[in-house]
Specification:
2 helices
Length: about 180
């Protein structure tokens, strides 16, 4: 599906079909509040994700993330702010397969498929493959990015407070509001 050719409502419907496949039940108000995050690039087919936020307080945050087939959440980190060390987060794969990239020994043959025009903005290549039921925890201020596999993916995110507007992306063209 070339998401750029679809309306926001069609993208929401596709997102809901992914939640259905994962067995995740959303309330009607949550369905209406699905965020389509194209990160200012207007290239949702390659870069971006769909998000439902359950809770985001000063102490904790819980979200569901949908990535369509081969869709990428681009490289970024969650820096310290005020007296906070930055967001610590755990990703748990619920459906599909997600390829998470973190600092470490680069994977020789990564599964990721990054479009040529974006490759310069991806610098960490240590691959962690998450399948349903598997999870990974990132320390604050850790550079990371992730991509869904060929079927897409649904990922639950559990974290400390989320301040998306403070995220630092490697690609200077990205805007997260």
């Amino acid at each position: 599906m070339a998401e750029k050719n679809y309306s926001p409502e069609q993208i929401r419907q596709k997102t809901l079909s992914y939640f259905e496949r994962a067995g995740i039940v959303l309330r009607e108000d949550e369905k209406r509040q699905i965020e389509i995050a194209d990160l200012g690039l207007n290239d949702l087919e390659h870069i971006g994700l769909e998000i439902v936020v359950y809770v985001n307080t000063n102490r904790c945050c819980a979200k569901e993330l949908v990535l369509f087939e081969w869709q990428i959440c681009p490289e970024h980190r969650h820096p310290p702010f005020d007296d906070n060390p930055g967001k610590e987060e755990t990703f748990r794969c619920r459906w599909g397969e997600v390829y998470l990239y973190v600092p470490g020994e680069p994977t020789l043959a990564p599964k990721a498929k990054v479009p040529e025009k974006y490759k310069q903005y991806f610098t960490v290549w240590h691959e962690v493959v998450l399948k349903p039921g598997e999870q990974y925890t990132l320390e604050p201020n850790t550079l990371h990015w992730f991509q869904a596999g060929p079927e897409g993916a649904v990922v639950s995110e559990f974290s400390t407070q989320s301040r998306d507007e403070l995220d630092i992306f490697t690609d200077p063209n990205i805007r997260r509001v």
